[in-house]
């Protein structure tokens, strides 16, 4: 790093080795590196993660097969059927920052029973089962996929819970500091919070066509655990000066990044970092990826909680440098509404067709002039 460069002007993404956690010396090294990654970069690679390599590799093998299902089968589980925004979305149906994303995807969630009843706020309806037949492709068309994916999700969920404890250590907070965001439990139990996940295909760019795989954005939730499921580069991360830094796939690793909810509750200490995906070049095979988005309790109003950081920890924010202009839309609503409502706003903006069908009142508020030709989305 040149002398006048700030830590936030990173030019590569740090790699943290989960296996360091098995010894006390290793763990303190990991926690130090984690603190740097959280404050200055907002992204890290996690090597040797506690998710079975065999399960990760099998899921990667399944991925192209999922997109090769007959179009009719994919349409039968399309997202517009689902109040939970689960299911299939074809290329061109999603919008980020007013421009169409060139990606095809299936959205799923960790197992959860919908708790919504008449009179409850709409956002309670956002969480619900993704294991009903309307969402999963037929078993006989892709045998073993659902079972394998659920095993994978259970392991990543466990990892995300353990990671939450490490965050508290990295910020020198009490072990249970993040408990209020997960219904009072330091290590949230499966089924308490619903996490979201997608399987994404980025087709090659057409000659002269758009290369926006997904436009610049912040993730909205707490932490994201991304499995890059092909060997294409394309994911890029924006540093403090606004420069785009490549985050190419590294086999056997997760890319972990910070969402706006975590940034908000840490008073900006943990950086949510703007990122995007460029489509593969014309003629190339598609790029695939599988993000897991960790969420927090729907009822939590983030402005009600103030974590008490030591002054020397808060100072880390000053030394990283000033946040420059980024290309992503912000999540300013976290100060105003419960977290679940903020997520719902983001979902309706990204998928206005699903919003119009299942959340007509909110749709009208967000799009008073009706369905956007090209909406303003997250
Ligand atoms: O596909 C990727 O590598 C990243 C996807 C992403 O950033 C997202 O869906 O939020
Ligand atoms: Fe993202």
UniProtKB/TrEMBL annotation:
Keywords: Iron, Metal-binding, Oxidoreductase. One of its GO terms (molecular function) is oxidoreductase activity. InterPro entries: DIOX_N (IPR026992), IPNS-like_FE2OG_OXY (IPR044861), IPNS-like_sf (IPR027443), Oxoglu/Fe-dep_dioxygenase_dom (IPR005123). It comes from the Eukaryota. SUPFAM superfamilies: Clavaminate synthase-like. Residues 189-296 form the Fe2OG dioxygenase domain. Belongs to the iron/ascorbate-dependent oxidoreductase family. This is Fe2OG dioxygenase domain-containing protein.
